[in-house]
């Protein structure tokens, strides 16, 4: 199956665990527009929790360049993968890389060739608002292999780091 094959009935769980992410730097709050993709995120996380703890769901994501996006020529869409990265099925879109960061990353991705994309670990957080369901996607974009591969100075990402309690 290719990256954009027909979406299966439900997500296949990932073997990525919170323990796998515990020794990483804090994830980056660089995804915007998650509220527009709540139906997909809800399938990955389940319903909002009844307590004030919420959920922390580790997941694999694909950041895919969308040079033909009508609203932003630097757009980078973020998709949840269905299972493990080497299986590479896309479950659904969950947002976009924020515009200010996308303007920095887009040229680096474009240099990788046609239809460039990178696979990243991330975490889905939220689900504990009393008024309405809330959810956010945080990416571990600052890994050395990603930064080195894109040729982006790590210092550019520092302002996006967000401490996330993984316990």
What does this protein structure show overall?
This protein has 167 residues and is of the alpha+beta class. It contains 4 helices and 6 strands, in the order αβαβββαββα. Strands 1-4-3-2-5-6 form a 6-stranded antiparallel β-sheet. A hairpin with an 8-residue loop joins β5 (117-126) and β6 (135-139). It starts with 17 loop residues before the first helix and ends in a 17-residue tail after the last helix.
Which key phrases capture this entry?
167 residues, alpha+beta, 6-stranded antiparallel sheet
Helix-strand layout with pairing:
Elements: H1 18-21, E1 31-32, H2 38-45, E2 55-65, E3 76-81, E4 90-97, H3 99-110, E5 117-126, E6 135-139, H4 144-150
Antiparallel strand pairs: 1-4, 2-3, 2-5, 3-4, 5-6
- Strand arrangement in the largest pleated sheet: 1-4-3-2-5-6
Question: What is the 3D shape?
Answer: globular
The helix/strand order is: HEHEEEHEEH
Distance between the termini: 35 Å
Number of helices: 4
State Rg: 15 Å
In a nutshell, what does this entry contain?
This protein has 4 helices and 6 strands. It is α+β, with helices and mostly antiparallel strands and 167 residues long. Strands 1-4-3-2-5-6 form a 6-stranded antiparallel beta sheet.
